[in-house]
Amino acid sequence: MQLPQHNDLNALNRRRFFATGASGLGTLALASLMKQDGLLGAEQQLAHFAPRAKRCIYLFMEGGPSQMDLFDPKPRLNELDGQPMPESLLKDIKFAFIQKEAARIMGSPRTFKRYGECGMELSDLLPHLSTCVDDIALIRSMHCEQFNHLPGQLMMLSGSDLQGRPTLGSWLNYGLGSESENLPGYVVLATLGRGLPGGASSWSSGFLPSQYAGTLFRNQGSPVLNLANPPEISSAAQMRSLQTINELNSLRYEQIGNPEISSRIKAYELAFRMQQTAPELLDLSGETKNTLEEYGVTREEASKSSTSGFMGSYARNCLLARRMVERGVRFVSLFLSTWDHHSSLNSGLERYTKISDQPIAALLKDLKQRGLLDETLVVWGGEFGRTPLGENRVNFKKVTGRDHHPYSFSMWLAGGGIKGGQVIGETDEIGWGVTKDPVHVHDLHATILKLFGLDHEKLTYRFQGRDFRLTDVSGNIVEQLLA
User: Fold this and answer.
1) 114: which strand partners?
2) Rounded CA gap, 391 and 71, in Å?
3) Which of helix, strand or coil describes residue 115?
4) What span, in angstroms and rounded, lies between the C-alpha atoms of 192 and 335?
5) pLDDT of residue 411
6) Cα(first)–Cα(last) distance of the chain, in Å?
């Protein structure tokens, strides 16, 4: 196509574009049809190398789970219970609430056993997950710099402790596109206690076009508020309205070229298609009784969970996550709040593992049984861990919890090209710091992108004169994680 000279660019109007670009549009139309028929997948177009994962389910445990009570046994903690920390270890250390001068080591009441062929050690609080250890890669050497919730969550989810950056799910959909025609490429489900400190920043598209942001689903009633038509509006009338709105938006886009207008057009079209597909997604009547029981959807503690608004049963959300990846959703985030146990640590962990352990194990087994686990990456973790010191806040009468600890904590991954049945990294005898194979958040993100066939150094977006990426200016692939 012959473009006008730079001083006559305004002459490239709509009529001239269609008159001179017909052959190019035909090629684009053919590519679009091939993609819809599965003959030209997004991965084949955009991935830097062959992907091992196509979808991701991110199980985010808001608040910071205690690694030494769940995943990283430390017998030495009980031997040193009540003793002060060496001053050399506390130098230049920042705490959220602990009073340094009175800090004391706190033991753990939990017991650990070895499970599976790999012999992975897990806490007695995880009886269901313990049956899945041969599919899990447990990282005990995670670390970051952020010691408060909001910056820690932003860092873990977006690679930066600043608000306004795209989250992992947005980067994956930007890099690879969505496999689903009728559902968002990035869906968020939340089971909330206190809520999320980051709010919508936890699934934001940041400076990427808004079409890549996460869509928050309710797991009861209408999945998205205002999705259904009012009774007096027919589907045909809505279609005519949508066509008119899109035509107006298209005209405006031609005038100013703002990519957000294109995102708005796509959002209207997707919402129209979701009116049919989303209610079916949330309808579990087609699931077998055995499946519902395996996830724990019908169990007593699940039925007591709040089911209003965005809060609902975690078991139901895990089952919905499987149904979503079956239907081509690229990235599903499941938030469970809150693991922030500054006090009543033991009873708090008992409560939250009772809520989550059974459905998470059922999700892994269900994905595996359906042949989905090989291409579905499952990630479990919070924003940081908990300190081996007891929480001794001034107004606390008794030390029963732990403070925030970013210097060493645990996460695990399964499926999607992960080599299961292994433990990566080690911490010292009380779990204070990493002693072997440290894994930073940027390293984790770089590895996840590689599993999806993306080079973390090449997946960039230019914003305000700079090429941004998920891993900022660092990040190394954790090769040990890869199958």
Assistant:
1) 121
2) 20
3) strand
4) 7
5) 98
6) 47
Residue 262's alpha-carbon distances to 25, 34, 105, 204, 251, in angstroms, are: 17, 22, 56, 18, 11
Give yes or no for a contact between 142 and 444, defined as CB atoms under 8 angstroms apart.
yes
Distance of CA 125 to the CA centre of its chain: 23
**Per-residue model confidence (pLDDT) at position 232:** 66
Give the tokens for residue 40. Answer: 């030209």
Largest CA distance in the chain: 81
Q: How many Cβ atoms are within 10 Å of 343's Cβ, its own excluded?
A: 17
- DSSP lists the bridge partners of residue 115 as 120
Please report, for residues 15, 234, 270, 296, 378, the alpha-carbon distance to residue 349 in angstroms, rounded to integers and kept in the order given: 65, 50, 40, 18, 21
Single-letter residue type at 411 = M
Supply 88's token pair.
Answer: 């050399």
Residue pair 48/176 in contact by the 8 Å Cβ criterion: no
Residues of the chain with pLDDT under 70: 1-46, 219-233, 235, 237-239, 242, 265, 267-272, 300-312
In 3D space, the residue among 375, 467, 462, 454 whose CA is nearest the CA of residue 46 turns out to be 454
Element (H, E) at 413: strand 409-414
